[in-house]
Structures are given as C-alpha cells and as structure tokens.
Amino acid sequence: MPLPQDMLNQNEDLVLDLHPHWWYFAESVGVLIPAVVAEIYISAKIDGGFWNFLPKVSGAVFAVAALWVGWKYMLWRTTHFAVTSYRVIYQKGFFSKQGIEIPLERVNNVNFNQTIVERVLGAGDLLIESGGQDGQQRFSDIQRPQIVKKMLLEQVQLRMDGRGGQRTNDVATQIEKLEGLLHRGAMTRDEFEREKRKILDS
C-alpha cells in the first residue's frame, strides 16, 4: 500500500516510500514457527490419556501466534517511511494513526545504526537529528539505511540550495502580489496583514 497521495502538498514530489524491512516480523514469526511445529507434533503424538489437554494448549498458542503475525502484517502495510522534496514523513497505525513530519530545512544530521545481523540482512535504524522540539528521532527496521541516509541528505542539500538563493525573491514577489490586491481593493488591510504573515512565517 503506497503512501496516500492526499498527504502530499501541491508541487511536492515523493522521492522515497518504504515499508519496514521484513526483519520487522522477526519476533512474531519466531513465535509462530515453534507453535506450528508443536501443534503438528502434539496432534500426531497425543491421543487421549493424561496429556489430552496438550493439543488444546498448543492450538491456543498457535492461534495467538497467528493472530500476532496477522496484526503485525496489518501494521506493516500501514507503516511508511517517506522522503519527499520538502520533508520526511513517518506514519504508522491501522485503526489509530501516529505520524512524524520533519521539514528538510530542519534536518541537522542523519546517522544509521546496524547490528551484525541487521547488516547482513540489509536492515537497521535511522537516527535523524533535527532542529525541532523532539531533537533526535529514531526510526527502526529501515531497509538499506545507509542508502536511505544518502538519499535523504541529497534531498536536504537540494532543498537548501533551492531555497538559499530564491527565498528572498519569492517572498518579495508574493508580497508584491498581495500589495497589488490591496491597492485594487480586492482584499482588506486585515486580510493583507494575515496573508503577509503567513508568507513570512513559512
């Protein structure tokens, strides 16, 4: 399931959209496999007697493990780590939603962390240090984190290069347009000041 297009702003390009690495399922699948083996073995070996409660127990464990894997899959489908031309977006949740957005202008540093196993599998954690209130954000089970880091920093550089020389001219142009509307009587002074403040704050 791709990132919903309605999350993107006008003229915002989606550069990268990732679900978590399959290592995300390690714990739940690690419980399900032994549960399946135990269910098959006990069902074949236990036939009445004192131990006849074991098939029910193993069946219950198997059902819980299967539900856990199913739930993790639904969460996996609705978890996105995305990089656009304007920001980093992290969204997760099936029924309730949680999300983090970091404007590229606020990204100060990007690091990644991998254990030996994660390095072999191509998974890892991405750590983004930003100028926001939350400081450093950790994103787990990222696919090929070193490549994602490189792509993210490239977008940060492109964003900063694009805004560095054009920001002043863009702001001045937009304010001039507002002044033209004000002089023609197409907007009130209060509306002008409100729209001007939005431009300056952005």
Q: Your description of this structure?
A:
By secondary structure, this protein is an alpha+beta fold. Among the domains are: 27-75; 167-201, no CATH class. It is built from five helices and seven strands, in the order βααββββαββαα. It has helices at 26-45, 54-77, 116-121, 145-183, 189-201, and strands spanning 14-18, 80-84, 87-92, 98-103, 107-113, 123-130, 136-143. The strands form two sheets. Strands 1-2-3-4 form a four-stranded antiparallel beta sheet. Strands 5-6-7 form a three-stranded antiparallel beta sheet. α1 packs antiparallel against α2 (54-77) and α4 (145-183) packs antiparallel against α5 (189-201). The radius of gyration is 26 Å and the shape is elongated.
